[in-house]
Design goal:
Helix content of chain B: under 10%
Structural class of chain A: mainly alpha
Strand content of chain A: under 5%
Number of strands of chain B: 72
Radius of gyration of chain A: 28 Å
Shape of chain B: globular
Strand content of chain B: 35-45%
Number of helices of chain A: 20
Largest sheet of chain A: 2 strands, antiparallel
Oligomer: heterodimer
Strand order of the largest sheet of chain A: 1-5
Distance between the termini of chain A: 102 Å
Order of helices and strands of chain A: HHHEHHEEHHHEHEHHEEHEHHHHHHHH
Shape of chain A: globular
Structural class of chain B: mainly beta
Helix content of chain A: 40-55%
Radius of gyration of chain B: 34 Å
Chain lengths: 548, 1243
């Protein structure tokens, strides 16, 4: 019997054990392979926070990589040599935007899937506004880009992996349509609307502000295309002027504020304005801020000069030539060295290896603001300022568009309001910044000082040169938005300030930089569409559609 | 640049190695080899002998010693014989034996290499004797040590047993049965049952696999002849012959096709092992390591629970080998070589089919020692000390000191002046100051050549001029004969191993403790490793046997150096530090004087950071190097418990079962204490990072076997299952300072204001594979063997609909020398086998990639966000597959004195699971799909030869080699090329996989050719090629796109070992070689561009063309770059030779520059291991009454390169990192040779 059991039952037993084992082969697999981080089911606030985080990423990496190019191109600053970062080498604006399109569609799909979709109208309008802001920024860098078919890879359709390009005109019009929808559908009074509350790091669910932002953005976009497509732009301008716009220098400057987003930091600023960018105060800006070339700064009339820039190590205000010549004395030194936290005046580095800092610099605090641990009152990453909107309005009234007659008086009012808002805003930023210690403004310019400033011959509104003045002051205000200043430069056909000295240098060196080349991933993985767009000639010298 | 790999060159190199080794062997070889190499057979050997009244057994033993033969006999046969006398001189053995044995009525017969004695009138031919059923005896080694666990089987049956702890066995055998004794590492021995009584069997160690028992998949021991695929075995003793730092290095050059690379680093670093090429485009290409049945990986140890293979897959193509992290070693470092019994390398999926998915890259099976009964106390003590001498430094020129463009200004190269008008040493800011522009209107130099390091040595000639140094001291301006040396010192490694081994009826036991201490060649870097190991074989019952091993390893490693780091930030202290390779290869000029170390501290012990200028080159982090080295301490601690229990039960005569449970549990801890830089002890930082990893695997196998299932056919069938589960958890946190309590290192001692410190980090990985498998073995007449297997895996890493996947294998082994009457051929062809195998294998993926999961946002201020992943997972991916075919032969010649093993294989790995990049404008960067295929095909050969086999002197040679071609067959449709990684990205070097190319092509900008000539761009003041004004410089035109400029795949790799034994001395020499395969040498590019390479002084020394400097001075420093200008005209422009070197080599990533000029064929041969051992004769050792054995060895490792094609003593083995990017060299540490003493004693 025992033998029988051994010989017959044992194999049966073994087979049974295997069978049982097989049944449990995959018992815990789902649990084991479920990601431990993140979530397969995000909420709308979570997706929205990710959307805004993406904008912050762009702000950081873009400045780090692009400041050394955009400042000399716009002539808002000068560089004494090029940095490691190649022109257009940063593709973060591109990749961030398209990654964010995925987030955008995910959020919209989430809203669409909810039974009470109507309560998310405000959120949809916010998302549309932010998407437009980001899309236009990227389109202004590259020109035509994939847009209507872009950002849809999550549907796993092979066709979605290679989105076609849209013309910049169609992108602008589509974006303007989105903004119009947002402006017309935002409701600051509908209590049933879902509130993102503090998850809205941009405006803390302040719908009134959102309406102003969306509408102001509409005005910016419309003016961007007005020179090329006045038919479509004019009605929008008219409509935008009839609706709320950003205007207050304290409340209406839109961007990412550390006050609204606890824990927000700006880690790239050390690089964006540090040694690596090789930035110096340029002669173009200097000519707009100082009435003389006196190196002691006695000719400075623009209060923003003392906020934007600082003198060299010998306290001399000598800007680096915007268009240097062979006789330009080479710059060196390390004025953005962190030794200056403890030894502020020393812009040469430490003995015995001091190297003289010969030229006036960008303000040291630009590179320290928001970067120093524990700092507060950091300058926000700006999307749009109240001053810019005043200048946009001034531009409309100065030139007149279909539906809005030329009105130079109103233009001057808006111009002065823009200049004042700009001065007050940047002065406030300096006052509020905890890292700002030396030569820190203690209060806003007095009315007298502002009046004197507004009456300075360079600033004083002149009907004959109104547009140039408007553009110039907008250009000065955009010191921390060189990409927007670049757009302004291109759409106005170069009417922003330029140093006329040795202008051929600029022509030879920078005028061919009209746009960025598409990232390599386009020619590698979206070749057919890329080729259809470029015909194989993806040139930086090709003017984008809005450019004059 | 340099082509290699032609057969004639290869042959020449091999011959060169052999000749060099022969020279090492010296005249000894020549003097004693004459008589024996011509011997035609055992009985032809001539001996001289004088015995008077001696016991027969003793006489036979003496003959064994003199004639180098082996007698096999029943001990009773000689015990009963009277004493004999014999006097012969130079007579053939046959005559001697006739004279000796005929009078004693003893017949003899030569079987293989044995002389079998039998009583007259009885036959050893099977079936002729009628004697007791129980045969017993003992089995021992040539050294007289009992061998437990020897397989004793009866030929033609499945009956068998194993020897016990004393080497004793009993077996039911009828007269005529042929007993087969087989044991790992020893030649199999056959004995025909003749009569009763105790047998005394002596097994001989074997260097070849022809007659061995080898360990195969799942630990199954099989006769080598029945195996239809390639498996190579290395004994533990061979691994540790020359005291290797770890098993990886102990295997170097010893296994055909085992490609082992040790990345640029110091002892204790990781290793990368690849068998038969890369089978995965981006994932893990290293073989599975199986230690006593426990499955582990040889992944490099990384902080925060990171896994390199997973990182490579998830961050495809973004690996930047200019910045590999700190190398804390890899798993094989923790296996103590002293505890290893044998290592079997199963190559390719054919051999590894039974390990399933995880064995797709081959398997390295490590069997640990289980103990044995030994004479005396059974106590062994091994001691070794090895000094590690950094001796082979890169060559630099010693004539011209630091400077970048000053050499362009005047024949009298100017110095920089200090504030007092004195000539001063060049410092880093200078090149961006007065001399930043190319004279003549060329603008800043870095617009042409990028940013050089501070090692730039284009300065004035060094002739002892007084110069104010950066520290204010005036010193003579002279060269430093070795600018690197002050960063290194002689290190050492000391190992003590104590083991006890014993056995009894119940089984065997071995207990071992090993302590290794290492002091690195870099400062303040060391490690200690303690290993406790217990191995046991237990006879649980008559039918049940257990083998159990448990090993506990503790490693404490202080400051594994970061070789490559560039300006790594130290959190709280707001300063940066850089790695030693980066600093030495990039930032030391030829006039470098090692002064910074003395400037490290303030008087109160705090860091001298009052000024950045406690060193000449602040941006190199040089000023922080020594502070960091001595005060920023990271201790890596690993505690590992590895245990295995295997039960074997003979349930029925035809049925046995094995069950195995293995556990690998370890913790990795990285604790960093960065000493506060201030005297108050506040500005420090602290971090802690702890990983726990557990791996469990359970296996069960039930085997039914039947002799004579059909006529002449034996069969066995095994079915089984296995369970594998792996889990990692890591938690880490950082206190970046400032501290609340001074000099107190913990996470809560944080006085800063940032809200989220100590910032916690977490990581997890978990996966499981369950399997069932079946193995069918059929044997026809013991010379034709078929093995077929099938396996079904369920992998948790795949989508539910693809959890399950099946793959089969089949192999055939045919011993044709047993099957056919070989006739006269048997005289030279002793053994012949052909084998054939075809196998499939399949593999899952990495965890967590099948669920569409929104990822967390790491940006500060937005950590509540969830975002769409930028790499889309796939819910439909299927397992990736591999299909392998191999054919080979094992041949033994001249009584197996020469053995040849040859294999051809062809492995096709397809349906790879890849994150395929797609246009980011789609909204994501990559989508995970099954796509792409790789093919590896190649050959492997092993030749063993007993060139001399005399009792007094022997010479054994082993040559192994392999050639592998690793082709990228396909990627995704529409994608022709994908990046593996890069060196510095941008305009640096990239390694890509491209359809149709070998895996691992090296890519970079290259020359532009016009009519076959290189195009030269001429630089004028008005711009490049403008033609306005005089030519002020010249550079080779650079291709607009990156091109393939090199191929990292070696042509042939292998090793040659020679073992010489003379009486009690033995000499062992191992060389290994790598022929073909290219690298891009960052060190060469840097040294040439920075004017440090000796080559760069040729023109500066006046051997160039007449050249007029901008200041009107003249010197013969001019060159014409050979080539044509863009208009096709021959270039005739004479430019400063600076352009030839700095202008065409030096650049990191910001300027496109020709990269092909730093590509080299990395062919090298190395004297890897050398030992000279003296074994005290056993008789003398016995007289001490203390020692049973005692041997002393002089050991040398990595002694020198026999040849290398790299210039300027660049380290051929300083490859950056152990990732799949294996074609870039940079930051090379000096070559390190080791020498020492090893003592092995048995008590």
């Amino acid at each position: 019997m025992t033998k029988y059991i051994r010989s017959r039952l044992l194999p049966i037993l073994v087979v049974s054990v295997f069978a049982l084992g097989l049944a449990s082969c995959t018992k815990n697999f789902k649990a084991i392979n479920t990601p431990w981080d993140g979530s397969p089911t995000p909420t709308l606030p979570q997706l929205y926070v990710a959307y805004v985080a993406n904008l912050d990423n762009t702000a950081n990496s873009e400045q780090r990589d692009d400041n050394g190019w955009l400042y000399p191109i716009t002539q808002q600053g000068a560089i004494y040599t090029h940095s490691d970062y190649s022109y257009g080498g940063s593709t973060s604006a591109w990749s961030d935007f398209y990654h964010n399109l995925s987030n955008y569609y995910a959020a919209m799909n989430l809203i669409a899937a909810t039974p009470d979709t109507a309560i998310y109208t405000n959120v949809k309008a916010m998302l549309k506004t932010l998407k437009v802001y980001q899309a236009i920024k990227v389109s202004d860098f590259y020109g035509d880009i994939p847009y209507s078919a872009a950002g849809k890879a999550v549907d796993y359709q092979t066709s979605s992996y290679t989105p076609a390009y849209d013309s910049q005109q169609s992108i602008y019009l589509s974006c303007l349509s989105d903004l119009t929808w947002a402006v017309n559908n935002f409701s600051a009074t509908d209590a049933t609307q879902f509130s993102l509350g503090s998850s809205d790091g941009v405006l803390l669910n302040n719908i009134t502000q959102w309406i102003k932002f969306a509408n102001s953005l509409r005005l910016r976009l419309a003016l961007n295309i007005y020179g090329k497509d006045p038919t479509d732009a004019a009605p929008i301008i008219v409509d935008a002027l009839s609706k709320p716009l950003l205007s207050d220098y304290l409340a209406d400057d839109i961007g990412l504020y550390s006050a609204n987003i606890p824990g927000l930091s700006f880690p790239a600023r050390a690089y964006s304005f540090g040694t690596e960018c090789r930035l110096r105060m340029g002669t173009a800006m200097w000519q707009m801020m100082s009435s003389t070339n006196a190196e002691d700064g006695s000719g400075i009339f623009d209060p923003r000069c003392l906020i934007y820039f600082e003198p060299n190590n010998d306290s001399l205000w000598n800007p680096y030539p915007q268009n240097p010549t062979a006789s330009t004395i080479p710059e060196q030194g390390d004025p953005y060295n962190t030794l200056r936290d403890a030894d502020w005046p020393n812009k040469d580095g430490a003995a015995p290896n001091q190297t003289p800092n010969l030229y006036a610099n960008f303000n040291y605090y630009w590179s320290r603001d928001g970067e120093v641990s524990g700092s507060n009152g950091a300058i926000p990453e700006l999307f749009m300022t109240a001053a810019e909107v005043h200048f946009l309005k001034a531009e409309v009234y100065a030139m007149g568009v279909t539906g809005v007659s030329q009105n130079l008086a109103t233009a001057q009012t808006e111009y002065n309001a823009g200049v004042t808002a700009s001065v007050n805003f940047w002065t406030t930023m300096a006052i509020n910044s905890s890292v700002w210690v030396v030569n820190k403004p203690t209060g806003l310019p007095s009315t007298t000082a502002m009046t004197a400033f507004l009456n300075n011959p360079v600033v004083l509104f002149n009907a004959a040169t109104a547009l140039q003045q408007i553009y110039a002051q907008e250009w000065i205000d955009m010191i921390r938005q060189p990409w927007d200043a670049w757009t302004l430069l291109r759409r106005t056909g170069g009417q922003t300030p330029m140093d006329p000295n040795n202008a051929s240098y600029y022509t030879q060196t920078y005028s061919a930089y009209q746009r960025y080349q598409y990232p390599a991933s386009e020619s590698e993985y979206n070749y057919a569409n890329w080729y259809a767009e470029t015909k194989g000639n993806d040139l930086t010298s090709t003017k984008i559609w809005i450019a004059k | 640049m340099n082509k290699c790999g032609k057969p004639n060159l290869t042959l020449r190199l091999l011959m060169r190695i052999t000749v060099l080794q022969l020279l090492l062997a010296g005249g000894l070889v020549i003097s004693v080899s004459a008589k024996n190499v011509h011997g035609q057979g055992i009985l032809d050997r001539k001996i001289s002998l004088s015995e008077t009244g001696q016991n027969l057994k003793r006489v036979l033993r003496n003959i064994e010693a003199i004639a180098d033969v082996k007698f096999t006999y029943d001990s009773r046969l000689v015990a009963s014989q009277r004493q004999v006398s014999l006097e012969v001189k130079d007579e053939q053995l046959k005559a001697v034996l006739d004279r000796l044995l005929n009078p004693l009525s003893i017949q003899y017969e030569v079987i293989d290499d044995q002389i079998v004695l039998r009583r007259n009138g009885l036959s050893d031919v099977p079936g002729t004797a009628a004697l007791p059923d129980i045969i017993s005896g003992t089995v021992s080694s040539q050294e007289g040590v009992s061998l437990p666990g020897v397989s004793v089987s009866i030929q033609g049956t499945k009956r068998g047993t194993m020897t016990d702890a004393q080497g004793h066995f009993q077996i039911d055998a009828k007269p005529g049965d042929v007993l087969i004794f087989s044991y790992i590492g020893y030649g199999a021995y056959k004995m025909t049952v003749k009569n009763g009584g105790a047998l005394s069997i002596v097994l001989t160690k074997s260097d070849n696999a022809l007659g061995e028992v080898v360990v195969t998949s799942l630990g199954i021991k099989r006769e080598a002849k029945s195996i239809g695929y390639s498996v190579q075995q290395v004994s533990g003793a061979d691994v540790i012959k020359a005291d290797p730092p770890n098993i990886s290095q102990g295997l170097m050059g010893k296994v055909a096709g085992l490609n082992i690379t040790i990345p640029n680093g110091v002892e204790g670093g990781s290793s990368r092992i690849v068998i038969r090429g890369n089978n995965s485009l981006f994932g893990n290409n290293q073989p599975l390591i199986v230690v006593d049945g426990v499955m582990v990986d040889n992944e490099p140890i990384l902080p925060q629970g990171q896994n390199q293979s997973i990182t490579n897959v998830l961050n495809q193509g973004t690996t930047d080998v200019s910045q590999p992290g700190t190398d804390y070693g890899s798993f094989l470092n923790t296996i103590n070589p002293d505890d290893v019994e044998s290592i079997n390398v199963l190559k390719g999926p054919t051999a590894a089919a039974l390990y399933g998915a995880r064995g797709a890259n081959g398997v390295i099976l490590i069997v640990s020692k289980k103990g044995a009964k030994e004479r005396g106390l059974g106590l062994n003590y091994n001691f070794s000390v090895r000094w590690n001498d950094p001796y082979r430094f890169i060559k630099t020129q010693h004539e011209y000191g630091s400077g970048m463009t000053t050499t362009l200004y005047s024949a009298n190269t100017p110095f920089v002046k200090d504030a007092n008008g004195n000539d001063r040493e060049f410092v880093e800011g200078d090149q961006y100051g007065t001399y930043q522009n190319i004279p003549g209107g060329g603008g800043p130099f870095y617009n042409y050549i990028g940013f050089p390091g501070d090692g730039a040595s284009w300065g004035p000639k060094m002739s002892g001029q007084p110069l104010v140094w950066w520290d204010g001291v005036t010193r003579p301006y002279t060269a430093n004969p070795n600018i690197f040396k002050s960063f290194y010192k002689t290190g050492n490694t000391v190992t003590h191993n104590v083991s006890f081994s014993g056995g009894g009826d119940a089984g065997t036991l071995r207990v071992s403790y090993t302590r290794t201490t290492n002091d690195a060649i870099t400062y303040n870097s060391n490690f200690t490793q303690n290993v406790f190991n217990i191995g046991s074989s237990i006879n649980v019952s008559k039918k049940v046997k257990a083998e159990a091993t448990v090993s506990y390893t503790n490693i404490d490693r202080l400051n594994a150096p970061n070789i490559f780091g560039e300006n790594l930030s130290v959190p709280s202290n707001q300063y940066t530090t850089s790695g030693i390779g980066y600093i030495t290869m990039y930032h030391l000029p030829t006039d470098y004087k090692p002064l910074e170390r003395g400037e490290t501290y303030n008087a109160d012990g705090s860091k001298n950071s009052s000024t950045l200028n406690n060193n000449p080159y602040p941006s190199s982090s040089m000023g922080n190097y020594w502070w960091n080295t001595f005060n920023n301490n990271t201790v890596f601690t690993q505690n590992q418990l590895l245990g295995s229990v295997k039960l074997t039960a003979d349930i029925l005569p035809w049925l046995n079962a094995t069950g195995h449970v293995g556990i690998d549990y370890f913790t990795n801890q990285f604790e960093t204490k960065n000493k506060p830089v201030d005297a108050a002890g506040i500005d420090g930082d602290y971090s802690n990072d702890l990983s726990t990893v557990s791996t469990e695997n359970l296996d069960a196998l039930l085997t039914a076997h039947k002799e004579g299932l059909f006529k002449n056919i034996d069969a066995s069938l095994s079915v089984g299952g296995s369970y594998y589960h792996n889990k990692l958890y890591d938690i880490s946190a950082v206190n970046p300072g400032p501290f609340n309590y001074p000099f107190t290192y913990n996470l809560t001692n944080y006085a800063g204001t940032t809200a989220n410190y100590p910032r916690p980090g977490e990581n997890r990985q978990e996966s499981e594979i369950n399997s069932v498998l079946g193995i069918l073995n059929l044997s026809y007449k013991k010379y034709l063997f078929l093995e077929a297997s099938g396996r079904n895996d369920w992998s948790s890493t795949l989508p539910a609909n693809n959890w399950s996947f099946f793959y089969p294998s089949a192999t055939l082994s045919f011993v044709f020398t047993d099957a056919f009457d070989m006739g006269m051929a048997k005289n030279w062809l002793s053994y012949g086998k052909v084998r054939l195998g075809e196998a499939a294998s399949a593999n899952g993926y990495i965890p967590y990639q099948t669920v569409f999961n929104y990822g967390s946002v790491g940006t500060a201020g937005f950590t509540t966000g969830l975002q769409v992943p930028t790499q889309l997972p796939s819910q439909t991916i299927a397992p990736q597959h591999s299909r392998s075919f191999e054919v080979g032969t094992d041949l033994g010649f001249l009584n197996n004195r020469i053995n040849l093993n040859f294999t051809y294989y062809n492995t096709y790995s397809y349906d790879q699971i890849l994150p395929i990049p797609i246009a980011t404008s789609s909204g994501t960067d990559a989508v995970t799909i099954n796509s792409g295929a790789l093919r590896n095909k190649g050959i492997e050969f092993i030749i063993n030869a007993k060139i001399i086999n005399h009792s007094a002197f022997s010479w054994d040679v082993t040559v192994n080699g392999a050639h592998n071609q690793n082709k990228v067959v396909s990627l995704e449709k529409g994608i022709n090329e994908l990046p593996l990684g890069s060196w510095f990205g941008g305009d640096g070097i990239a390694m890509n996989v491209k359809v149709g190319d070998n895996y691992g092509g090296i890519y970079g900008r290259n020359y532009v050719y016009l009519n076959g000539q290189k195009v030269v761009n001429l630089i004028y003041a008005g711009g490049t090629n403008t033609g306005s004004g005089p030519v002020i410089g010249a550079q080779y035109a650079v291709s607009p796109d990156v091109q393939k400029i090199g191929d990292a795949t070696p042509k042939i790799t292998g090793g040659i070992s020679n073992t010489f034994n003379y009486k009690n001395f033995s000499v062992y020499v191992l060389t290994d070689f790598n022929i073909g395969g290219q690298i891009w040498s960052g060190d060469y590019a840097t040294m040439m561009g920075q004017g440090e390479a000796p080559e760069t002084t040729h023109e500066r020394d006046g051997h160039g063309l007449p050249y007029t400097f901008p200041d009107g001075t003249t010197a013969n420093v001019g060159v014409i770059l050979p080539g044509v200008t863009p208009d096709g005209k021959t270039n005739t422009a004479v430019v400063n030779s600076w352009w030839k070197y700095a202008g065409n080599y030096q650049s990191w990533d910001n300027d496109a520059i020709v990269r092909g000029n730093s590509i080299f064929t990395n062919t090298w041969g190395k004297l890897r291991e050398f030992t000279l051992t003296y074994r005290i004769p056993t008789s003398i050792a016995a007289k001490t009454r203390i020692f049973q054995r005692l041997s002393v060895s002089l050991v040398g490792r990595d002694l020198f390169y026999l040849f290398t094609k790299l210039p300027d003593r660049i380290n051929p083995e300083s490859i950056s990192g152990s990732t799949n990017v294996q074609g870039v060299q940079f930051g090379g540490l000096p070559g390190v040779r080791s020498y020492g003493i090893s003592v092995k004693a048995g008590f």
